[in-house]
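Action item from last meeting closed. Structure (199 res):
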């Protein structure tokens, strides 16, 4: 279906806000839900339409986690990005098709939902999270700009003070020179243009 927004950006922002401890949560964005399971330092995430609810996606994520751990053990914690895509993408594709179309997946998820209640799943509106994050970043940017402007103003004030001080010194020197010249002219005129004391 047609949707609005950039899912890559949304996913990146969600991952930035995840807690370090093991947890499960869902974020709402447009008509989709981002379901996240954090376990043993690894993050498992899937995006599904609202009609899937939360039980099927979390059953899918747990299935994927079990398959991933049984295949790679602890190598997933130190692997390079996308290092296991080629091998594990086939498993992901197969399980996505199963949980998307097989009615047994729905029955299995309902049984699991009764055993493992989904009360721990927190649903938050991703738009509010993004808005709050943008406001925080905007506040930080404005604070940094104010600090920079303050430092710039202080530097300009110091330079202006020095320039004014030198200007005053130059003006005083000019006035002193003019006064000395006037005194010499007056003294010369009083003495008839000759040094005083000579007849």
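Sequence:
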């Amino acid at each position: 279906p047609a949707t609005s927004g950039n899912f890559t950006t949304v996913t990146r922002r969600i991952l930035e806000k995840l807690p370090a401890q093991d947890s499960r949560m869902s974020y709402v964005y447009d008509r989709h839900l981002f379901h996240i399971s954090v376990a043993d330092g690894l993050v498992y995430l899937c995006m599904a339409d609202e009609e899937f609810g939360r039980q099927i996606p979390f059953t899918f994520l747990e299935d994927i986690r079990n398959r991933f751990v049984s295949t790679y053990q602890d190598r997933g914690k130190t692997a390079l990005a996308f290092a296991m895509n080629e091998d594990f993408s086939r498993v992901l594709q197969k399980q996505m098709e199963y949980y998307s179309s097989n009615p047994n997946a729905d029955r299995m998820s309902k049984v699991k939902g009764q055993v493992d209640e989904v009360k721990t799943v927190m649903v938050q509106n991703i738009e509010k999270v993004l808005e709050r994050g943008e406001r925080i970043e905007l506040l930080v940017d404005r604070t940094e700009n104010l600090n920079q402007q303050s430092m710039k103003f202080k530097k300009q004030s110091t330079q202006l003070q020095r320039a004014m001080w030198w200007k005053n010194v130059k003006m005083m020197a000019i006035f002193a020179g003019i006064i000395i010249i006037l005194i010499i002219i007056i003294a010369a005129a009083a003495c008839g243009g000759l040094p005083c004391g000579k007849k």
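Note appended to the action item: The beta strands are 23-29, 32-39, 42-49, 122-125.
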